[in-house]
Amino acid sequence: MPVGLVVMRWDERVGTEILAKYPEEITVSDKTLMQVYSTHEYSGESGMISLMVGALNIASYYTGPDKGFYILLLLNLDDDPDAYEGGLVDVAQTILQNLEDDAYIPMIPSLFRRLSVYPTLTTEQQLAMTYQEEIKRMILNRLREEGVVSKSELMIWLKDKYKQGFVDMESVLNDLIKRELVKETSVKGMPSELIFLINDLMMLRIPPVNLAGNPVDHGLPAQLSDDYKTEIKNFFQGYIPSEDDNLRVVDVFIDPQVYETLRLLRTSIVTRNDLEKLKKKGVDDVDEVLKVLWDNKMIQVFQDERNNEYYALITDFYIDLVFPEYMLNVIREEYVNKSKAEEVLVEYLTVLEDAYYAMEEAKKIAASGKETGEEEAETGT
Questions:
Q1: pLDDT confidence of residue 377
Q2: Regarding the domain delimited by 126-199+323-379, which CATH topology (the fold level of the hierarchy) does it fall under?
Q3: What pTM was estimated for this model as a whole?
């Protein structure tokens, strides 16, 4: 697990300068900071490096010469720095978006907590984090319209559209590739690699079906069962999916404390005492977590005749990959209008076919694993 986070930059007068760190008690020598700076300076480009300095295992991300920030994640000796690369890119992006009045400094503790759990994020958390980033949403939105764009054109377009200025294109694309949303490949005769959309993101609020099917079995007193079902029905009668709402909800998935609470609420309708037990799992501020879930209209509080309170999920959230069948119509239109080279469109059809069969195979493997687990549970093996 990481032991600390340091934000520094190079000052021509004083050399390396620490701007923020967490926890406050951690110390990093000037010699170590200089070594980090020198290693980045050797390449002169934005990106991550990892190095061992004495007993310190460091993963460091450099934002490039335009802003000149260095984000150092201090790790234990047996930690794998590469496992944190995507998280460091996300943290760097957040810091650079909050430079005015040093607004990023109070965020450092929460950014460190996010980084700490980055390698253990669930698939839905990883996708939520991908969707949260404006640059990645911009790329996905453009690919939804065109399906395929050359890498060079995409870089020029992003620099023109993204006003914050910092775009680490390679890291952004690497994350989208890792999440199986896009594929990068080359086509003979094309001067630049091509970026293809191979999967899209499906996300929307969904009812907590398992809980609503039998609230009593999940911890809610029988006399409150109808009220619970009514609250769920009332919410979804007025629910309209939107990007703004999706962005509010994905914040829930990215906050480790809130997500841990959500995982409990997906399985049970709980009392305050149940929630307090989550402190053993790192949920230090139950009140703040409940406020976040309440403000996002994800929970409701019910009270029995003895004034006992029960906290229940009234809306869950679904986020996963979905095969973009609509792209076949896009390809057809681009072929008719000759807006894309025929060789590119033929390659795109091949790429989509491969992606489709890969997704179907993954579903079969997942279903087979689930069946095996259920059989073992039944036989007690």
A1: 52
A2: Arc Repressor Mutant, subunit A (1.10.10)
A3: 0.82
